[in-house]
Structure formats: structure tokens, C-alpha cells
UniProtKB/TrEMBL annotation:
GO terms for molecular function: catechol 2,3-dioxygenase activity. This is Glyoxalase/bleomycin resistance protein/dioxygenase. The gene is catE. PROSITE patterns: VOC. The keyword Oxidoreductase applies. Keywords: Dioxygenase, Oxidoreductase. Its EC number is 1.13.11.2. The keyword Oxidoreductase applies. It comes from Lysinibacillus capsici. PANTHER family: CATECHOL-2,3-DIOXYGENASE. Residues 10-126, 167-281 form the VOC domain. It is an enzyme of class 1 (oxidoreductase).
Length: 281
């Protein structure tokens, strides 16, 4: 989990808009295994360890369905501490009759599903870093069938919700122009490119993680930005290391014409696809 510690610039929280907060809370507690950290009539902060909010749900006063093609969230990804935890999640999903996808990415083993508003969710476990393969600073990743039977052999059937060591492993975004997104995240925020998938997808990270952020145009090339009240991504938060890093980022963002707004504990910006990024200490 050192990839999700300073000095890396990693995702700490994802904030999504939902159409029915009560329905979403039921799903995220009973199916995903979150606990409620704080809640009011239109907002809930969810946690795995009882202390840190990983996911924030917001129900706008006037809520709209998401159009079929917009920028925004492709999925957020919850990283479990171990393969055993992934096995227990698989067993739990089977008991609940959850429809899901599954993939082996060489660096990780992953499950995919959607929440009631079709917000994408990945739940995964990393393979040991020593098993990752790098070629010229590009990490080898694939999308192949997941050996679920092998994973289940490590489970103990003891599903008690998300383990306390769960973190927000990465976020994957739908963008309208990959070149513009690349400039924003690499020149503006200082990320390194670790994998390219042709001309339509890009994976970036700090500290040689397989990816802290994914970017793609698979269903969103030249698409409009997500509407203010449409269900989907509202903001996501990245951890800042120190004041010097923050000052450099602000200068770099302004240099490429990106907005910079001061907020409590850090600053806010927006990528060219309209995804709002909060950078906090």
C-alpha cells in the first residue's frame, strides 16, 4: 500500500451524484460493504476503517439521469489489502446474486460492477510488485479472464464488509480528448505515463504504481461534459505532499491555462473534460 502514501499523488476520495440517497446507501452498505461515517438528508460519507471517507454520495436537489455519452466517471476502484479479501468479496457477491465482470490485468485481479445509478465500480487486489513487468518505464498490463477458482481457494468465507485496510486504489475517467487530458495530468499535475493502449486510453501514476488514474475516450470522444445535476462524478480528491509541490502544480496548471481556485486545505482545478479535481494536504 506504499503507493497510496506520501510522497505519491494518489486518490483519497471520490464524490458521486446519485438519484436516490437511501437506495444508494443500502447498496453501498449491504453489497459493497461500506460503513457510514457522516450523513445528512442529501449527503453521506462512507468509510472502510471508520475514520477515513473514501466515497462521498450526494443527492442533488434537482437530479437528472446521465446521458449515454458524456465525460466523467468510468469507474472508481477500491483496492483491497489481500487476495483473500478479494475471495471473500467474490463469495459475498455470489450469495447476493450480484452480476459482475472480472479481469486479470497481470498487475492486479479485478471485479467490475455498477451501482444503482450505473456509476462504475472496480474492486481489486494487486499482485505483488515484484511480479509486475516493466519495459522502458511502461508497465505490462493485459485484460484476460480472471481465474476465480484460484482466488476462491484463498478465501475463508469471512466477509464482514470492506476490510479496514481498503483504500481508493485509482480512478478511471472518461475524457473527450486524450491529448488534452494527457497534457493536463502530466504537465499540470506531474503524473508519469506508465501504459498506453493505442490512441484511446492512457494510464498514469506517481512512484511507479501501475496507475493512480486511467483516462480513456472509448465512449466519450468529443462528448459533452457531464451536467451539473446529472448522476455521476462530482469531484475526486488527490493527496498533496507539501507546499512546494502545491506551488509547482499551481504554476504548471496556470501555464497550460487550467483554472486554479483556493479551497480549505488545498486548491481546486478542472481538467479539459470538466472533471473537478480537489488537491488537499
Amino acid at each position: 500500500m506504499h503507493f497510496h502514501e506520501k510522497p505519491n499523488t494518489y486518490v483519497t476520495n471520490v464524490e458521486i451524484k446519485v438519484s436516490d440517497l437511501h437506495r444508494s446507501l443500502t447498496f453501498y452498505q449491504e453489497i459493497i460493504g461500506f460503513k457510514v461515517l457522516q450523513q445528512d438528508s442529501h449527503k453521506a460519507m462512507l468509510t472502510a476503517d471508520g475514520e477515513t471517507a473514501l466515497l462521498t454520495l450526494v443527492q442533488p436537489k434537482t437530479v437528472e439521469d446521465k446521458l449515454s455519452m458524456t465525460t466523467g466517471l468510468y469507474h472508481f476502484a477500491l483496492l483491497l489489502p489481500s487476495r483473500r479479501d478479494l475471495a471473500n468479496v467474490i463469495s459475498h457477491f455470489h450469495e447476493k446474486g450480484v452480476y459482475l465482470g472480472a479481469s486479470d490485468h497481470a498487475v492486479s485481479e479485478a471485479l467490475y460492477l455498477n451501482d444503482p445509478d450505473h456509476n462504475g465500480i472496480e474492486i481489486y487486489a494487486d499482485r505483488p510488485e515484484s511480479e509486475w513487468t516493466w519495459h522502458n518505464n511502461q508497465v505490462h498490463m493485459v485484460t484476460e479472464p480472471l481465474n476465480i477458482r484460484s482466488i476462491l481457494e484463498e478465501g475463508d468465507g469471512n466477509w464482514l464488509g470492506l476490510p479496514a485496510g481498503t483504500v481508493m486504489g485509482h480512478i478511471h475517467l472518461s475524457v473527450s480528448n486524450l491529448a488534452e487530458a494527457e497534457q493536463f495530468y502530466t504537465k499540470g499535475l506531474g503524473y508519469d505515463i506508465v501504459t498506453r493502449y493505442g490512441s484511446q486510453a492512457l494510464f498514469i501514476s506517481t512512484g511507479r504504481y501501475h496507475h493512480h488514474i486511467g483516462l480513456n475516450t472509448w465512449h466519450s470522444e468529443n462528448a459533452p461534459k457531464l451536467g451539473k445535476n446529472q448522476v455521476g462524478l462530482k469531484t475526486f480528491s488527490l493527496r498533496l505532499d507539501n507546499e512546494e509541490q502545491a506551488a509547482t502544480m499551481k504554476d504548471n496548471l496556470r501555464g497550460i491555462g487550467a483554472p486554479v481556485t483556493e479551497i480549505v486545505g488545498g486548491f481546486q482545478t478542472e481538467d479539459p473534460a470538466g472533471n473537478v479535481v480537489l488537491l488537499k494536504f
